[in-house]
Amino acid sequence: MKTALLFDLDGTLVDSDAEHLVAFQRIFAPHGIELDRSEYAANIMGASNAMIARRYLSHLPPHEQAATLDAKEEAYRAGLGDLEPIAGAAALLDFADRRGLKRAVVTNAPRVNAEKVLAALGIEGRLPIVVIGGELARSKPDPLPYLTALERTGALAERSLAFEDSLSGVRAAVAAGLAVVGMTTTLSSRTLIEAGATFAARDFTDPRIFALIEARINSGDEEGAKA
Questions:
Q1: How many CB atoms lie under 10 A from the CB of residue 215?
Q2: What number of other Cβ atoms are within 10 A of residue 225's Cβ?
Q3: SS3 for 209?
Q4: Of 8, 15, 142, 165, which is the active-site residue?
Q5: Surface-to-core class of residue 43, CB atoms within 10 Å of its CB (0-12 exposed, 13-18 middle, 19+ buried)
Q6: Active site residue 10
Q7: Which end of the chain is more exposed for a tag (fewer CB within 10 A), N or C?
Q8: Residue 42 CB-density burial (10 A; 0-12 exposed, 13-18 middle, 19+ buried)
Q9: Is the dihedral of CA 16, 21, 26, 31 positive or negative?
Q10: Contacts of 133 (CB under 8 A, 6+ apart)
Q11: Which residue of the set 10, 15, 17, 142 is catalytic?
Q12: Regarding beta strands 129-132 and 161-164, do their DSSP bridges make them parallel or antiparallel, or are they unpaired?
C-alpha cells in the first residue's frame, strides 16, 4: 500500500494550543513579551522553536534563547492534564488498520513532547513513525519533514494525505505534494483553505475525510489501468 496518513500533533491529534499559549505567556513575561491568542496563532502556532527564538528572543545570546525555550517546553509538559485525542481519531486509525495504511506523526514539537503526548493519548503504538522537524536540516514550513515521512513510510505523495491545523504545516504538506485536511481547532476554514488545504474539518468524524482517503487510494489504481 502506497498510501499514508500523516498527522501533525498539536492542534491536530490533540487540542493543546491553549496549554502551549499559557506556557509561552508564563516564560516570556519576565522578558517583557506579551502574547495573546491572536499573536500566538499568527506567529507561534506550528513554528519551530528556532523560528520562535529568531522572532522573539533575538536580544538574548543563543544559550539563553535555548534555555528559555527549554523552560517553556518543561512548563508545557508540567501543565498537561488528562488528554484525549480529537474526536474520531481512534476510528480513523481503526480504518487505517483495516485498509493497511501507513501512518506517521510529523511535528515541529520536540521529541520529548511528542512522546509524552502520544503516550498520554494512548496511541503511541498506533503511530510508530514520528518525524521531528527540529531533528532535520529544515522544519515546517519547509516540506522536508513531510518528504521524510513519505520516505519512511514508503508512501507516495499523490496517494497520501496530511492533517494540519497551522499555516506553516499546511504549506509544508502542500509543498510536499500532499492533499491536506485542515483542522479548525484554532484557525478558520477559510484561512486553512486559502493556505492550500483541500478542505477544512472540525474533527476526524467528517465523512469527507474517508472519501478523500479512498479517492487517494483509488487514484493509483486508475493510473495503473491507464498505463
A1: 13
A2: 7
A3: helix
A4: 8
A5: middle
A6: yes
A7: C
A8: exposed
A9: positive
A10: 48, 106, 107, 108, 139, 140, 144, 145
A11: 10
A12: unpaired
DSSP character string of 124-170? GGG--EEEEGGGSSS-TTSSHHHHHHHHHHT--GGG-EEEE-SHHHH
- Main-chain phi, psi angles of 197, to 5 degrees: -65, 145
Which three three-digit cell numbers place residue 45?
502556532
Beta bridge partners of 159: none
Gap between the Cα atoms of 8 and 163, Å rounded: 6
Which residue shows C-alpha cell 499559557? 22
Q: What is the rounded (10 degree) CA torsion for 7, 96, 182, 35?
A: -30
Q: How are the residues of the chain apportioned to helix, strand and coil, as percentages rounded to the nearest 5?
A: 55, 10, 35
Residue the block writes with cell 503516550: 119
The C-alpha cell at 171 is 504549506
Domains and CATH numbers, the chain: 4-15+85-226 (3.40.50.1000), 17-78 (1.10.150)
Question: Residue 137: how many CB atoms within 10 A of its CB?
Answer: 8
Q: What is the pLDDT along the chain (227 residues), one digit of tens a residue?
A: 799 999 999 999 999 888 889 999 999 999 999 999 989 988 898 888 888 999 999 999 999 999 999 999 999 888 888 889 999 999 999 999 999 999 999 999 999 999 999 999 999 999 999 999 999 999 999 999 999 999 999 999 999 999 999 999 999 999 999 999 999 999 999 999 999 999 999 999 999 999 999 999 998 654 544 44
